[in-house]
DNA sequence: CCGTTGGATGACACTCAGTGACATGACGAT
DNA sequence: ATCGTCATGTCACTGAGTGTCATCCAACGG
């Protein structure tokens, strides 16, 4: 057919975001996304395992950054401190994607199916963080709960960050969420 | 057609569990479940919003029991203590369903789709617990994090309870999970 | 005894997500 | 020029989920 075009993955993501934003997730078919990207439905599924995944392919990068951050944390820090300190590189990257994150959040907020996918991505993240902690020598139980708590802190902070308009507020919101967690488990 | 039979909901659940256990979730079609229950695919979807939901209709009862337990907690307890104390009625009910829970857990463990649904049910639970705390006068932020943490404690304890063979161990596992959480956030 | 009404179910056609198998066309290497 | 490979297209198919209408059955009032 016509000549090969680059960045099919990116074109599909862009087309999907546009259409979801215009008509909503449910009212958009995979065939329509593919058509706007100049491709076919079959090719869409070569790049994304399912329709939802087009909104979640950034999760890999988030996980990589977080694990790098954890690896760079001081050796004598407590498990939970390691986990939250590891969010520094993540905060940096998010700063530049605030608007995209807001659009994406609006789409996800309107769809239970997408919320399910978001939660399992978070859970996978927690599993990866947990393994990273165990490799640092943290006990299995502490690693599990620190990872879960750390992801909860991240999730709460992220939700607030998306709701407000300052792209640079991420680090501050993480600190606040962590402080809140500490204060209520201290008693 | 043939005579009307009672408890269509229960028959569909039973047929589904049997088939999922025999052949696995993916290899079972809704039409097959309905056929074993003496019904049609269309009727299945009148009782369950989708195929997964047949494994999660117990979540409503869990939520109800937990909220009752929270309502019965001492007025001067800390938010997290209120939440975990509220699990007493839940522990009681689970004691009688240990075997069912084990079969169900095996099915869910083998299927990412089902894990997604499980997580969102947990999240909905957290939302309900959070609202219950707010109604008790807990601040919005403390309620959010106490509910999230409480559900995490529940989730961890539940996973351990399913893995082992003592149906009565639930309360003890909750206490242990809570103690672990406290010890790692105290530092 | 009969007609009516309402709730539960069946029948059927339809859309759309997702997959498997195979074809095609561009491109680089030899 | 030919070969192989990679990205994509084509097509047929399964199965989830829905809208719509038909049918059956029990309860109820006259």
At the fold tier of CATH, the topology name of the largest domain in chain A is: Tetracycline Repressor, domain 2
Instruction: Report the mean per-residue pLDDT of chain A as an integer.
Output: 94
Structurally, the number of domains of chain A stands at 2
Structural Rg of chain A: 19 Å
Shape of chain A: elongated
| Overall strand count of chain A | 0
Measured by residues with Cβ under 8 Å of the partner chain's Cβ, the largest interface is: A-B, 28 and 28 residues
Query: Can you identify the CATH class of the largest domain in chain A?
Result: Mainly Alpha
User: Which architecture of the largest domain in chain A per CATH?
Assistant: Orthogonal Bundle
Strand fraction of chain A:
under 5%
Q: Tell me the span between the first and last alpha carbons of chain A.
A: 68 Å
The largest sheet of chain A is: none
Q: Helix count of chain A, per DSSP?
A: 10
CATH homolog superfamily of the largest domain in chain A: Tetracycline Repressor, domain 2
What structural class do helix, strand and pairing data of chain A support? mainly alpha
Please supply descriptive tags for the structure shown above.
homodimer, Tetracycline Repressor, domain 2, mainly alpha, 0% strand, 187 residues, 10 helices, Arc Repressor Mutant, subunit A, elongated
Structure description:
Two copies of one chain form a homodimer. The longest helix of chain A has 24 residues. Chain A is elongated. In chain A, helix 4 runs parallel beside helix 8 and helix 8 packs across helix 9. Chain A has ten helices and no strands. The relative contact order of chain A is 0.11. Chain A is an all-alpha fold. Chains A and B meet through helix 8, helix 9 and helix 10 of A and helix 8, helix 9 and helix 10 of B. The structure holds a DNA duplex (30 and 30 nucleotides).
């Amino acid at each position: 057919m016509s000549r090969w075009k680059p960045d099919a993955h990116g074109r599909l993501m862009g087309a999907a975001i546009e259409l979801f934003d215009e008509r909503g997730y449910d009212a958009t078919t995979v065939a329509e996304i593919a058509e706007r990207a100049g491709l076919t439905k079959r090719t869409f599924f070569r790049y994304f395992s399912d329709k939802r995944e087009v909104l979640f392919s950034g999760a890999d990068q988030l996980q990589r950054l977080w694990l790098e951050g954890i690896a760079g944390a001081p050796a004598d820090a407590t498990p939970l401190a390691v986990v939250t300190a590891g969010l520094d590189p993540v905060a940096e990257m998010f700063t530049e994607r605030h608007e995209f994150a807001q659009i994406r959040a609006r789409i996800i907020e309107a769809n239970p199916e997408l919320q399910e996918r978001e939660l399992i991505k978070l859970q996978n993240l927690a599993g990866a963080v947990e393994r990273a902690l165990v490799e640092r020598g943290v006990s299995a139980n502490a690693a599990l709960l620190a990872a879960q708590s750390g992801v909860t802190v991240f999730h709460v902070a992220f939700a607030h960050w998306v709701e407000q308009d300052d792209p640079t507020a991420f680090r501050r919101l993480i600190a606040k969420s962590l402080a809140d967690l500490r204060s209520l488990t201290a008693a």
